[in-house]
Amino acid sequence: MNHAETIIPGRARPFEKSQVATPPWLKAILGRELAPTRDEYNAVNSALWDGDKAMDALVAWMFEADTKERRAQVQWAFQNGDQGLENSPAAIQAFINTLQNPPGWIDFELVEEGVSFIHGLGITAGYVLRDLALMGGYMLSGFNQSLVMTGALNKGTAQRIAETGKWWIDCTEHQGMRPFGPGYKTTLQVRMVHALVRRGLDKHKDWDHSHWGLPLSQIDMVATYLGFSVVMLVGLRKLGIPVLPRESKAVIHLWSYACWLMGVEEKWLVQSETEGFVLLNHTYMTQSKPDATSRELAQALAREPLERSFDRFQSAQRKLSYHQHLGMSQYFLGRKKMAELGFEDLGLPWYPLASNGPRALAYTAEHFIPGLRDRQQQRGRKAQLAMLASMFGEQEHAIIKPDTDHPAHI
């Protein structure tokens, strides 16, 4: 379908409503107004029509003939890299060649610093990403439509969350983002699934282009990657976790590179937390207010801990985890926003109120006392892997395998 890029989809807020005054203290930190200029507003909304040109072209080639066989050839190339690439079809070679020249600013030593910092966070990172970034993201209904129409998070929610966790774990392995490391390969696999979903929903009779723009557009991907970086850093500070400037830069760098690999255009990749905070706010201008999809997805996410697998006292641990995560979401989002997501008054968020202080003190001590940081990172990573294992249970730790009613199924 051809789209007129000059048309602003109905999901976007009018420019006038984006012009909210920036508090003086925040303007001093950012060095500018938070609100977008007219040019920035137009650029963000124009990108609601943009997909992932390189991967979309590769998927189009897959569907020209022998789709299953061609998909298998693509997946082989993603797993094996340059090995035997000269014998691959020209379309696959052309795509792999787009990966050969990453942005010149990529610094793999800084990426590794970001990985080490994330390891040291332990399950605190999981609380922020799940209970703030993901739950809060559902309030922005602009990209909820893709999730609902794929059934990705309102059907089999536990499996979908675990698959996302697997991708995150792979991306945050040491050397994982090196060419054809575990995070590198998993990211390419997810990128292909995104393109398949984009193709499927773009042709779907129920997809309203005039209102939603292109499924899984550049801006939807931008907002998602900023959740893994900027939103995580903001959430950590709200939990009392100190973040040094170098650590902030490393986290931003890690996810900017990961999302370049995911197909986000370089012009949308930021180099600092302040740049990311501004861009995140600009992506909000493309989002509708909470609606029925927001509540559907939020309620499904809230129930996810009730399906986890634990070695002992499973019923009790499931219920405890359920209340812990709900309490965290209320602490991050507040009662008003939780009500918009369909949650009744939950009372005081007892878990974060009781645990934030001790958690922050323990983290700070281990992080800054000489000789303890390595142990903190090792123990933190072990806790992250244990949380992922509880999500998968006895199932294989794998990423998305679309079933027959999924737009990405072949």
Automatic annotation (TrEMBL):
<dbReference type="InterPro" id="IPR037473">
    <property type="entry name" value="Lcp-like"/>
</dbReference>
<feature type="domain" description="ER-bound oxygenase mpaB/mpaB'/Rubber oxygenase catalytic">
    <location>
        <begin position="132"/>
        <end position="344"/>
    </location>
</feature>
<dbReference type="Pfam" id="PF09995">
    <property type="entry name" value="MPAB_Lcp_cat"/>
</dbReference>
<dbReference type="GO" id="GO:0016491">
    <property type="term" value="F:oxidoreductase activity"/>
</dbReference>
<dbReference type="InterPro" id="IPR018713">
    <property type="entry name" value="MPAB/Lcp_cat_dom"/>
</dbReference>
<protein>
    <recommendedName>
        <fullName>ER-bound oxygenase mpaB/mpaB'/Rubber oxygenase catalytic domain-containing protein</fullName>
    </recommendedName>
</protein>
